[in-house]
Amino acid sequence: MSRTNLGGTLTLPGTSLTIHRMGYGAMQLAGPGVYGPPRDRNEAIAVLREAVDTGINHIDTSDFYGPHVVNEIIREALHPYPEGLVIVTKVGARRDETKAWHEAIARDEIISAVHDNLRNLGLDRLHVVNMRVATPKVNIEEPFTVLAELQQQGLIGHLGVSNVTPAQYEAAKRIAPVVCVQNLFNVAFRDDDAFIQQLAAEGVPYMPYFPLGGFKPLQGEMMADVAAQMNATPMQVALAWLLHHAPNICLIPGTSSRAHLRENIAAASLTLSPEAKAELDAIAAAGQWTPPHR
């Protein structure tokens, strides 16, 4: 398959890891509610292989997706992994038989999660591990210190953070270098605008999740209007807006469909006119955004 425009590249600071700005988020490869096996495992495998064949070299995942299911599918589809592929996983949560999400940041839980990721991905060393915290009140220092120790043991290459405030990011940086930040951000929910600018000045990539979801009706109508003007889908316009918004933003849209994967990738080729960008910029002021759970 021919390679296509993937939004350019960024290098994680202090590393030799260079990723395309259009990546792939693997969360949707699990079953409904990010739990259990997918409805179509063969399609899930085909999505991953096509993503890599197209040139995507950044996959976001976690062993609590499923749990275990998504990482096992990634291993089946892509192992032995092609040179240059960067798999970014995260720890800090666990699932139970009720499909509930629970915080898991105790020392033994962090160590167990890292080893689960290693085993299910078939790796001796994880490329990047994000420390996910549940709320701004969490003291990130203790669990991040455990990750730093595992990094020193050679089990992790580099460390990132997920769902953090700027203060939590600064606390983590005092313990070990942070090479990426993964937070909730989209055209309607822009609380991290100043944070993204700070990270851009530091050369740190920012990976927004939920690029489209939870919009109020008026916001959805505004997005659909811009998309119609561009002969694109709302999701494509939302992704294009993110790429235009800041040079350090890297995308990790997820899907379990090859057709949808192709639509997402095509968003990297969209050019937003000043008028279209202004219309999209105004969406954030059009209503309160309701974030889904992650």
What do you see in this structure?
The longest helix is centred in the middle third of the chain and has 15 residues, at 107-121. With 294 residues, the protein is α/β, with parallel strands linked by helices. The two termini are 32 Å apart. The model has no long low-confidence stretch (mean pLDDT 94). The protein has 10 helices and 11 strands. The strands form 3 sheets. It has a 7-stranded parallel sheet with strand order 3-4-5-8-9-10-11. A two-stranded antiparallel ribbon has the order 1-2. Helix 5 links the parallel strand 9 and strand 10. Helix 1 packs across helix 2 and helix 7 packs across helix 8 (234-245). The protein is globular and about 50 Å long.
**Approximately what portion of the residues adopt beta-strand conformation?**
15-25%
* Fraction of residues in H or I helices: 25-40%
* Main sheet: strands, sense, barrel: 7 strands, parallel
Write down the overall mean pLDDT.
Answer: 94
Q: SS-based structural class?
A: alpha/beta
Spatial ordering of strands, largest sheet: 3-4-5-8-9-10-11
Say how many strands there are. 11
Q: What is Rg?
A: 18 Å
Poorly predicted segments? none
Overall form = globular
Q: Kindly, what is the distance between the CA atoms of the first and last residues, rounded to a whole number of angstroms?
A: 32 Å
Secondary-structure element sequence? Answer: EEEHEHEEEHEHEHEHEHHHH
Number of helices: 10
